[in-house]
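Ticket #4471: complex job returned nothing on first submit. Input attached below:
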Amino acid sequence: QMQLQESGPGVVKTSQTLSLTCTVSGDSMASDDYYWAWIRQPAGKGLEWIGRIYSSGSINYNPSLKGRAAISMDTSKNQLSLRLDSVTAADTAVYFCARDGLGELRVAYEIWGQGTMVTVSS
Amino acid sequence: DIQMTQSPSSLSASVGDRVTISCRASQTIYTYLAWYQQKPGKAPNLLIYAISNLRGGVPSRFSGSGSGADFTLTISNVQPEDFATYYCQQSLHTPWTFGQGTKVEFK
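Support reply: We reran it on our side without changes. The output follows.
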């Protein structure tokens, strides 16, 4: 059973770069053609899709982030990464990594990490 | 972006009640609609995909329906473990977007 686990610094200073890693265990990221995504949730608020990367390397981002996000994957390490530049207090949130399913389940996120809290502070 | 609007934002229910949550998309999204359940401090958990397909292991008291741009999540015979926040999500176009959530509280 595949599991995802996010990790990161916890606190990032305003205007600096947030870097998060999602480590996949239980199976290889390359075992099939999945989409891997980052999603965030400010405290007490809803879910915001940040972007996704396909096994082929194709990437989509949320335009609301104005080019500040970069998603990558390293199948040799079984890791997904997120970099978010020029952070502000508005980027304070719980960040989740997630994986879609196959076939009909391609339309939803079947597996999620537990999430990691990131606070942006001056 | 496709906007997803849920109603109500919150509701109160008793164990055994039937609960319905609505989700409206800003355009037709065909079958690209999923529902998630989220409990405090936890990640969302997929319940239903493609409007009405129950994910394996999800109790049959959960059901989804709808078409076009209007969708409904129904929980029949609400159980104590069902008190949570529910989100709809569209996956027709990126950016994938979520409804603002509906919190189901104990009456």
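Chain A has a mean pLDDT of 95. Closing as resolved unless it happens again.
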